[in-house]
């Protein structure tokens, strides 16, 4: 980006620049909403204060990664660091730059440092879009302090920045601007000489609408304000003494009527919203679940992804308290695949409501994890001999299947016999709660377990294969195995 974009005082036609650009902060103390990130002693403050002629730059970080959503001031902060510290500002976009461009900029920065002594702040926007080789190319210059790297990303750098570069960098997390921050920016833009110079007024309802539409994005808020101001002012300047034009909620709606949905399908917002969606269904809040469903739909999330999450929630959060809910969500997923959007939104809504309003139990989820933990720990044991398969005469002679009781021949279809390996006799994994179907299931399961506990090992569950001759038990393997 051209440095003149930031050196506003030297631009002869600054009124032609977008309002969001004209209103960029010029010093750290003008930055709104990121007070924690620019406070005294922070990496950004030390970088901005470390003028190259003071020698303090050696104690400042050589690489900073700014992590945060769009419109929170990442580019502005990078330029302020360069301007306040007397460094040259160079910018690359990861979208349009390759390894060749990276190396050329680094070479120029090195030449500038050697020939003039001026250091360079290299700002890389959307660094998460750089490939591994492009990020690797930055490492020598960062290590040798040929440049001070300030990289910006909307994606979690833990996953989008290579480990060698991440370990050499200080990560600064920037937050989306809240209502008060955006209100302050709008009020400043209305009266500032670089902004609208008091030419228009903004009523409270209109301001609230702009803030709600911006989604915490200062750039979008100022762009909306500028569009609304243009709509009420028109091409003619206000005559002296004339009443100032008023920006109303209706004017704002006419220039922008769709809110900004902060949601990157590859970034943290994707996982944060999906996490809130699942937790809302788990927490039996259908309204919150529908809210997050709507956010995912409006952001263009794949409805098949949403349907899969709902199916998982049905099994994990509802489980045996209402086992029919899983069938509902499976049917919904199939219907979504057949119908597609926009009608699939109705199917997804029905499935979400089914999960969110159903009685909850994670007993089946906990049960399989406990069973897996036993197996992983080596608590396995041999299969009791009366449960073993006996498809051949030899295996019958070994004693396999001997003493097995066919459950359907017993009262209540429950046989008093051991099923667990000897080492795990008495171990229980499934513990139903008192909600939904499990309220009925719990007492019944306890009666079954009482019968099972009364079992005695009919043939020795780990007995060695019988070497004795004689008749083997008659086994109907088709029905009883």
From TrEMBL:
Residue stretches of biased makeup (Low complexity): 458-474
Annotated keywords: ATP-binding, Nucleotide-binding
Residue ranges, annotated region (Disordered): 452-481
Domain called AAA+ ATPase: residue spans: 60-176
SUPFAM superfamilies assigned to the protein according to its UniProt record, in alphabetical order: P-loop containing nucleoside triphosphate hydrolases, post-AAA+ oligomerization domain-like
GO molecular function, one term: ATP binding
Keyword Chaperone set for record: no
Annotated family: Belongs to the AAA ATPase family. RarA/MGS1/WRNIP1 subfamily.
UniProt protein name: ATPase AAA
């Amino acid at each position: 980006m051209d440095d003149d974009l930031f050196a506003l005082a030297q631009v002869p036609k600054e009124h032609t620049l977008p309002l969001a650009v004209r209103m960029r902060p010029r010093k750290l103390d003008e930055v709104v909403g990121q007070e924690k990130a620019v406070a005294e002693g922070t990496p950004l403050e030390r970088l901005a204060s470390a003028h190259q002629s003071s020698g303090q730059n050696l104690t400042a970080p050589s690489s900073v990664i700014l992590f945060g959503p769009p419109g929170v001031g990442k580019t502005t902060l990078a330029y302020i660091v360069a301007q306040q510290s007397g460094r040259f500002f160079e910018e690359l976009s990861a979208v349009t730059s390759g390894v060749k461009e990276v190396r050329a900029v680094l070479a120029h920065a090195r030449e500038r440092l050697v020939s003039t002594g001026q250091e360079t702040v290299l700002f890389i926007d959307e660094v998460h879009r750089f490939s591994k080789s492009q990020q690797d190319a930055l490492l020598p210059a960062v290590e040798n302090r040929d440049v001070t790297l300030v990289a910006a990303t909307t994606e979690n750098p833990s996953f989008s920045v290579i480990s060698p570069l991440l370990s050499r960098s200080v990560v600064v997390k920037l937050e989306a601007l809240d209502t008060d921050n955006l209100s302050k920016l709008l009020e400043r833009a209305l009266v500032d000489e670089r902004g609208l110079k008091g030419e228009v007024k903004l009523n409270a309802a209109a301001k609230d609408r702009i803030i709600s539409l911006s989604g915490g994005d200062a750039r979008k808020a100022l762009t909306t304000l500028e569009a609304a101001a243009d709509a009420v002012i028109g091409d003619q300047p206000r005559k002296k003494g004339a009443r100032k034009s008023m920006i109303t909620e209706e004017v704002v709606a006419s220039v922008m009527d769709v809110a900004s949905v902060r949601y990157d399908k590859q970034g943290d917002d994707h996982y944060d919203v999906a996490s809130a969606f699942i937790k809302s269904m788990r927490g039996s809040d259908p309204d919150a679940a529908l809210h997050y469903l709507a956010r995912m739909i409006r952001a263009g999330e794949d409805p098949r992804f949403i349907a899969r999450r709902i199916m998982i929630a049905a099994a994990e959060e509802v489980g045996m308290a209402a086992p029919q809910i899983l069938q509902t969500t499976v049917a919904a997923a199939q219907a979504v695949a057949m119908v597609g959007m926009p009608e699939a939104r109705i199917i997804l809504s029905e499935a979400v409501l089914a999960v969110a309003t159903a009685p909850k139990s994670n007993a089946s989820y906990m049960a399989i994890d406990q069973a897996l933990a036993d197996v992983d720990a080596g608590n396995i044991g041999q299969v009791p001999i009366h449960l073993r398969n006996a498809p051949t005469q030899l295996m019958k002679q070994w004693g396999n299947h001997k003493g097995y009781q066919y459950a359907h021949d017993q009262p209540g279809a429950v046989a008093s016999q051991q099923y667990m390996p000897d080492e795990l006799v008495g171990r229980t994994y499934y513990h139903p709660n008192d909600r939904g179907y499990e309220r009925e299931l719990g007492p019944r399961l306890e009666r079954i377990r009482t019968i099972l506990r009364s079992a005695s090992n009919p043939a020795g569950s780990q007995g060695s294969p019988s070497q004795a001759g004689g008749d083997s038990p008659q086994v109907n393997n088709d029905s009883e195995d």
